[in-house]
TrEMBL record:
Annotated ranges, domain HipA-like kinase: 12-221
InterPro entries associated with the record: HipA_2
Protein's recorded name: HipA-like kinase domain-containing protein
């Protein structure tokens, strides 16, 4: 399971993100970028972050370590910004944190080189989870200690927002025309040959087990948290085998 920490101090909002994540300190003396259940799409965004982040890690891609962060809404009482105060007050309980990569630089395709092999693995992974938020306008990639790191996977697996149509949604192709790494000649076929066989029922059961039960509770149409975990896994298993043939915009 993800490590559990308790937020002890809210430092500052990070206004680059549309959901207003914040920088927090925790009782393990770590500093985390925190995403809140009270923001945007709420807990579904956090579920997507966990599934994609933990799957990416197991496939050998670099993502900041994820933790669950327990938040006492009292931390919001002293915040002068009314928007931030409201967000903290509405997000009591279990939220998501990711290691703060101090000194990281935002990825600029004109300033950094990426090999076709690494570009292919990232494009293939984004196609697998249907990441619509890794364009050249908003790469959601960081350069840290000379390596490329993936962040912000909340806008993935859009089929989770309409489970009755999830199968049809997950069968759609992936448009990579505006992908942040499209100009690096991504070798998607080599990535598929390497990574697709790793995306098994067993691996995804391990990944989805990391989702806190509280984020899965009371989902319409599902009798238990484990039934919902299987629903998250099924489209990814099916998509892994064929998605490299359905990526549009990559030569």
């Amino acid at each position: 399971m993800l490590k559990e920490v308790i937020a002890t101090r809210y430092i500052t909002p990070l206004r680059e993100g549309g959901s207003l994540p914040g920088l927090v300190e925790a009782d393990d003396f770590g500093t985390y970028v925190m995403k809140f259940t009270g923001a945007g799409q709420g807990r579904k965004t956090l579920v997507a972050e966990v599934v994609c982040g933990e799957l990416a890690r197991r496939l050998g891609l670099r993502v900041p370590r994820l933790v669950t962060v327990e938040l006492d809404p009292v931390l919001g009482l002293g915040e002068p910004d009314q928007e931030v105060q409201g967000l903290l007050k509405s997000s009591g309980g279990t939220n998501l944190g990711m290691d703060f990569l101090s000194g990281a630089l935002g990825f600029d395709p004109l300033a950094f080189e990426v090999s076709p092999e690494e570009a292919g693995r990232i494009v293939w992974f984004d196609a697998l989870v249907n990441n619509v938020d890794r364009s050249w306008r908003n790469p959601n990639l960081l350069m840290w200690q000379g390596e490329l790191w993936l962040i912000d996977h909340g806008a993935t697996m859009i089929w989770q927002h309409n489970w009755p149509r999830a199968q049809a949604s997950a069968a759609r192709p992936y448009d990579a025309l505006d992908h942040a790494l499209a100009s690096f000649a991504p070798d998607v076929r080599a990535a598929a040959a390497e990574l697709a066989p790793l995306v098994t029922d067993e691996l995804l059961a391990e990944v989805t087990a990391e989702i806190p039960d509280v984020w899965l509770a009371d989902e319409p149409g599902f009798e238990s948290a484990d039934a919902l975990r299987k629903a998250y896994a099924q489209p990814l298993v099916a998509r892994a085998a064929v998605i490299h043939e359905r990526i549009e915009g990559i030569k």
